[in-house]
Amino acid sequence: MWTADEIAQLCYEHYGIRLPKKGKPEPNHEWTLLAAVVKIQSPADKACDTPDKPVQVTKEVVSMGTGTKCIGQSKMRKNGTFSTNSSWQPP
Predict the structure, then answer these.
(1) 37: which of 2, 28, 57, 64 is 20 to 30 A away, CA to CA?
(2) Which residues, in sequence order, are CB contacts of 41 under 8 Å at separation 6+?
(3) Which PANTHER family does this one have (predicted)?
(4) Which tens digit of pLDDT belongs to each residue from 63-79?
(5) Total tally of structural domains belonging to the chain
(6) Residues near 88 by beta carbon (within 8 Å), at least 6 away in sequence
(7) % of the chain exceeding 70 in pLDDT
(8) What is the helix (H) or strand (E) element at residue 59, kind and residue range?
């Protein structure tokens, strides 16, 4: 089995090593959001853990997104029908 901390560490390593420095926040000054999809795969012949032999799995970050899209207060609506996705139109 794996822990949430192991998955988080895998994502942080991917972010630090595989993504370019351009556009990353400055440490201790800025921050950003981070989301990732992690593929976890066990060998085909081993479906689940057993008490005496945990199944070895491979973990791989297959997708990652970062960033925020901020809007000004003048564009915020009280009913929450604003989206920063340019293809979405309010009802």
Answers:
(1) 28
(2) 57, 58, 60
(3) TRNA-SPECIFIC ADENOSINE DEAMINASE 1 (PTHR46516:SF1)
(4) 998 887 666 667 767 77
(5) 1
(6) none
(7) 68
(8) strand 58-66
